[in-house]
Specification:
The structure holds two protein chains of two kinds. By secondary structure, chain A is mainly alpha-helical. Chain A is built from 14 helices and two strands; from the N terminus they run αααααααββααααααα. Chain A has one domain: Orthogonal Bundle (ABC transporter involved in vitamin B12 uptake, BtuC), CATH 1.10.3470. In chain A, α2 packs parallel to α13 and α4 runs parallel beside α6. The longest helix of chain A is centred in the last third of the chain and has 27 residues. Chain A is globular and about 50 Å long. Chain B has one domain: Orthogonal Bundle (ABC transporter involved in vitamin B12 uptake, BtuC), CATH 1.10.3470. Chain B is built from 14 helices and four strands. In chain B, strands 1-4 form a two-stranded antiparallel ribbon. In chain B, a hairpin with a 2-residue loop joins β2 and β3. In chain B, α7 crosses α11 and α8 runs antiparallel to α11. The radius of gyration of chain B is 22 Å and the shape is globular. Chain B starts with a helix and ends with a helix. The N terminus of chain B is likely disordered. The chains are: A mainly alpha, B mainly alpha. The interface between A and B is large, with 44 and 44 residues. Chain A: It comes from Amaricoccus macauensis. Chain A: This is Simple sugar transport system permease protein. Chain A: InterPro entries: ABC_transp_permease (IPR001851). Chain A: It is found in: Cell membrane.
Chain lengths: 340, 341
């Protein structure tokens, strides 16, 4: 038994998730001792809701990263889908299901456009998505004139609570729609990537596209799936963001690209493709969330937060790469690959 | 015989590519755009347009140069704008703190010199640290520079609380806004930097090592080139170019802030790729980049004088890039077929 335990440990030691979990536990312990109100249920639920939109979009970005590509345009996609849906709801007065489906369709279409540029025209994914970001976001700003839509219908802005309880301290805890959607999206993405053939093919394609093609994976379809999935999730995230703040602001989501990318990468998704797990990406977001929240509660200036993010990215990516480099030298045959 | 003429053709093609004006497609596009705007916008081909062209291009141009050097090695430097802003902030802070209102002109010039040296040293330090992180940890440059960008921006914002610092002393701002024979000094700065970088990248062992790293870093390492030292040099060079961009910021804005020019970050990548720089590294020239910058600036000036929104300009920039890449892809597929006929 001890032997099995030690081999299990050896297997886990090289997984970035374990290191991330350790760091989260250490940081969490420090904050729960030093910052009052950090380890309370209301605070944790609040955090979950605040970061739900980022987590949903990060799930989509994770799929694209696994496929070996990168997408910078998701924030623009989310804004465009959100604004189109808001226009349909507020100006045309369409019912909820039509608006939601239309928003998701806009997201999927923009994602597929990215995939078409990348697959058929062979444009590098980072270049294609930067161009698409410039085009879609600029057109949105041009046609909207930068005007926000404040008169969203009630069905969109009313808070949906699935579970509500009052603690002894008198604080009210609500499990709201964004949290439930985030959990559902994470679960669906995990099932798709680990239990469905399309997910396994995407891992294969990210590892080596030519090998995957010869084994019989349809690279074109997989590309469309990955970018389309991110497009749909970006649109979903965009509409949920409008749900949370109660208005649609065209440039509310810009400059979140690099934050979402950091979260995905912290969780072990590699820019070279073929690696990463859903729990890892979620842990990456949790780490960024508790760092920001803990520092806030400690009264550290919010201006300081960006410095902490920078250091976290540098340290964690360096540790991951260096530890995996050491692991590669002593790789044991039959070892489980790091993408389960 | 056919084989021989093919090889001659390839040699001729390579000869033309080597010339500064060898980017025939891009030059044709530039000429077509100039012609289009000259017809559509009355008074487009005027001294005023040329002047605004020469005043607006240097900032984007220098930043693109700072981006091209790492791009050539297959990397990226997302921290260029953060570096530039922090350097500008440091210089302005030194100048407004240490120049007393009644200081003599010699003292003022002394402090300006100290500020410039401090700014340059800061950029070199940032470049060396970034380069060392890229070279010695083996982490993807996008991630390293994402981290350093966040760190540098964070420090700048933390120290300034997001405010702009103004107070560039008169001698410096007058120098930076001066012109020589009708050409603005900052435009000459861009031209000088472009020529210098072009020579370094094309005709020195360092530049050739950069292109080799971009093609195949392992092969370069096996050819007895210290790739790590070259990479440190690459990011240092990129940061030093940011110092020049910081000077342009001081000249045009007369102040410094942590969030100037942030929207240029991705545009510099667009400009580089439009200019024929391979985003995977290994290939690209400074002359191609300069023509691409001229194209972007002509589109921007033309649309501006046509009375269209600046938002539309960025959209058309993105569209131009996609169109050019599509044209290149089609050309690569179709050209051999035509030649065979």
């Amino acid at each position: 038994m001890p032997e099995r335990a030690s081999s299990a440990f050896a297997r886990w030691r090289r997984r970035p998730e374990l290191w991330l979990l350790l760091v989260i536990l250490i940081v969490g312990t420090i904050f729960s001792v030093t910052a009052r109100g950090f380890l309370t249920l209301p605070n944790i639920i609040d955090l979950l809701e605040t970061y739900s939109v980022q987590a949903i979009i990060a799930m989509g970005l994770f799929v694209v990263l696994v496929s070996g590509g990168i997408d910078i345009s998701f924030a623009a996609t989310a804004s465009v889908a959100q604004y189109c849906a808001a226009l349909l709801a507020a100006r045309a007065g369409l019912p909820a299901p039509v608006v939601i489906v239309a928003g998701l369709t806009v997201g999927a279409a923009l994602g597929c456009l990215n995939a078409a540029l990348i697959h058929y025209l062979r444009i590098t994914s980072i270049i294609a998505t930067i161009s698409m970001m410039s085009i879609t976001f600029s057109l949105l700003m041009y046609f909207s004139g930068g005007r926000s839509i404040y008169d969203l219908p009630d069905w969109w802005t009313t808070r949906v609570t699935f579970y509500r309880t009052e603690l002894e301290s008198g604080d009210i805890v609500r499990i709201t729609l964004p949290i439930v959607v985030m959990a559902a999206v994470a679960l669906i993405t995990w099932v798709l990537m680990t239990r469905a053939s399309v997910g396994r093919q995407i891992y294969a394609m990210g590892g080596n596209p030519e090998a995957a093609r010869r084994v019989g994976a349809k690279i074109g379809l997989l590309t469309f799936f990955a970018y389309g999935y991110l497009g749909v999730l970006a649109a979903l995230g965009g509409m949920l963001q409008a749900h949370r703040v109660g208005e649609s602001v065209p440039n509310a989501m810009v400059n979140t690209e690099l934050a979402v990318l950091s979260a995905a990468v912290l969780g072990g998704a590699s820019l070279n493709g073929g690696a990463g797990t859903v729990p890892g990406v979620l842990l990456g977001i949790v780490l960024l969330a508790i760092l920001q929240n803990g520092l806030n509660l400690l009264g550290v200036s919010s201006y300081f937060f960006q410095i902490v993010i920078g250091i976290t990215i540098l340290v964690s990516t360096s540790i991951t790469v260096i530890s995996s480099r050491r692991g590669r030298r002593h790789r044991i045959l039959g070892e489980e690959p790091a993408n389960g | 015989m056919a084989d021989l003429s093919d090889r001659e053709g390839a040699g001729l093609l390579r000869f033309f590519r080597g010339l500064p004006g060898g980017h025939l497609g891009l030059l044709a596009l530039l000429a077509a755009l100039l012609l289009l705007f000259a017809v559509l916008v009355p008074g487009f081909l005027s001294q005023g347009t040329l002047n605004s062209f020469m005043y607006q291009l240097p900032l984007l141009g220098l930043l693109s140069l700072a981006m091209v050097v790492p791009l050539l090695t297959g990397g990226l430097n997302l921290a260029i704008i953060a570096t530039m802003n922090q350097c500008a902030l440091l210089m302005v802070w030194i100048m407004r703190t240490f120049i007393a209102p009644d200081a003599s002109s010699a003292a003022v010039i002394g402090v300006i010199a100290i500020a410039l040296v401090a700014g340059l040293l800061l950029c070199i330090a940032i470049g060396v640290v970034t380069g060392a992180l890229v070279a010695y940890t083996g982490v993807h440059p996008i991630l390293v520079t994402l981290g350093t960008k966040s760190l540098i921006d964070g420090i700048s914002i933390y120290l300034t609380r997001g405010m702009a610092l103004s107070g560039v002393p008169e001698p410096l701002s007058a120098t930076l806004n001066a012109s020589v024979l009708g050409v603005p000094l900052i435009f000459l700065l861009l031209v000088g930097a472009a020529i210098a970088l072009g020579i370094v990248l094309k005709h020195t062992p360092f530049g050739i090592a950069c292109a080799m790293i971009g093609s195949n870093i392992e092969a370069t390492r096996y050819s007895a080139i210290d790739t790590r030292r070259v990479l440190v040099g690459v990011y240092t060079l990129s940061s030093v170019t940011c110092f020049l961009a910081a000077l342009v910021i001081l000249g045009t804005f007369n102040s410094a802030s942590a969030d100037y020019a942030q929207s240029y970050l991705l545009v510099t990548i667009l400009a580089a790729v439009l200019g024929g720089v391979d985003p995977f590294g290994g290939f690209g020239t400074v002359s191609g980049l300069m023509i691409a910058l001229a194209i972007l600036q002509v589109i921007s000036s033309g649309l501006n004088q046509f009375g269209l929104s600046t938002y539309l300009t960025v959209a058309i920039w993105g569209g131009t890039l996609i169109a050019v890449v599509v044209a290149q892809t089609l050309w690569a597929v179709l050209a051999p077929r035509w030649r065979r006929k």
